[in-house]
């Protein structure tokens, strides 16, 4: 990983800094393909949870361009999303649609293993969609997500859990409906903190100077009303994959 600067074991998390957003995206893709192939050498199915946002989509362009993507049996990958904007299937503002357009759709996935959050075209309400999504996660035969990928907003949000928003406090469900989101669109469905941390590895992926303060708080610790990322850790590993701009406040 040329140019990568490993600031390992900062406050019980691993931090890897890459020069810029493109290098970061390519490095996440390489790391992800290797992680999936490693799990597939041990067992049949891999559970992977994805994120929206620009980097969360860019990484699929990087995977699609990576020759080593063929080291993965994509038909044995179960795909989930940490959150989804409560919009109809196919809406260009949905996270899954943006991931697909960036390159995810080019991979030979099994559509039956791609777990999309139901939108208003396929559910009565965001609450009903969240409940169905939680049931889907519970019914899957996994002990934990193998890799939980999470983008981080400048305000410190992860998935659709915004600092200080009441939906952050849901602890009795795997997924929650979010209304009045400070970032549009207002209605969303999100995994809860408990479900997001139900992962062997959590990877926070962040680029840009506007995220530097959120990154520092996420790594060094902060209360939920200031930062959501600080509330989630992987069971085996918590990894921050960031670019130099996002590392400015460390
Ligand atoms: O539903 C959303 O609005 C996105 O999923 C959002 O949570 C995103 O992951 C972060 O805001 C980081 O996005 P960027 O990588 O574009 O900064």
UniProtKB/TrEMBL annotation:
Enzyme class (EC, first level): hydrolase
SUPFAM superfamilies xrefs: NagB/RpiA/CoA transferase-like
Keyword presence, Kinase: no
Any GO BP: pentose-phosphate shunt
Function description: Hydrolysis of 6-phosphogluconolactone to 6-phosphogluconate.
Ranges in a coiled coil: none
The organism of origin for this protein: Knoellia sinensis KCTC 19936
Matching Pfam families: Glucosamine_iso
Cross-referenced PANTHER family: 6-PHOSPHOGLUCONOLACTONASE
Reactions performed catalytically: 6-phospho-D-glucono-1,5-lactone + H2O = 6-phospho-D-gluconate + H(+)
Domain Glucosamine/galactosamine-6-phosphate isomerase: 21-240
EC number(s) on file: 3.1.1.31
Protein's UniProt name: 6-phosphogluconolactonase
Keyword field: Hydrolase
CDD domains per record: 6PGL
NCBIfam families membership: pgl
Family per record: Belongs to the glucosamine/galactosamine-6-phosphate isomerase family. 6-phosphogluconolactonase subfamily.
Gene Ontology molecular functions: 6-phosphogluconolactonase activity
Pathway terms, separated by semicolons: Carbohydrate degradation; pentose phosphate pathway; D-ribulose 5-phosphate from D-glucose 6-phosphate (oxidative stage): step 2/3
């Amino acid at each position: 990983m040329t140019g990568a600067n490993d600031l390992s074991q900062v406050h019980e998390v691993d931090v890897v800094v890459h020069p810029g957003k493109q290098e970061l995206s390519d490095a996440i893709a390489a790391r992800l393909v290797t992680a999936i192939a490693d799990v597939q050498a041990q067992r049949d199915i891999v559970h992977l949870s994805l994120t929206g946002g620009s980097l969360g989509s860019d990484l699929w362009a990087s995977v699609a361009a990576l020759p080593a993507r063929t080291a993965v049996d994509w038909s044995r990958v179960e795909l989930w999303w940490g959150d989804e904007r409560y919009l109809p299937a196919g809406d260009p503002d949905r996270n899954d649609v943006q991931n697909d357009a960036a390159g995810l759709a080019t991979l030979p996935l099994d559509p039956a293993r791609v777990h999309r959050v139901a939108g208003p075209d396929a559910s009565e309400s965001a609450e009903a969609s969240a409940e169905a999504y939680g049931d889907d996660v519970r019914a899957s035969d996994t002990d934990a997500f193998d890799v939980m990928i999470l983008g981080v907003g400048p305000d410190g949000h992860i998935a659709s859990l915004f600092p200080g928003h009441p939906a952050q406090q849901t602890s009795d469900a795997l997924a929650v409906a979010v209304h009045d989101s400070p970032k549009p669109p207002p209605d969303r469905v999100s995994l809860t903190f408990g479900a997001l941390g139900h992962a062997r590895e959590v990877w926070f992926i962040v680029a840009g100077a506007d995220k530097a303060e959120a990154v520092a708080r996420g790594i060094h610790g902060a209360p939920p009303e200031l930062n959501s990322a600080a509330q989630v850790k992987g069971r085996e590993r918590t990894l921050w994959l960031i670019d130099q701009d996002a590392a400015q406040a460390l």
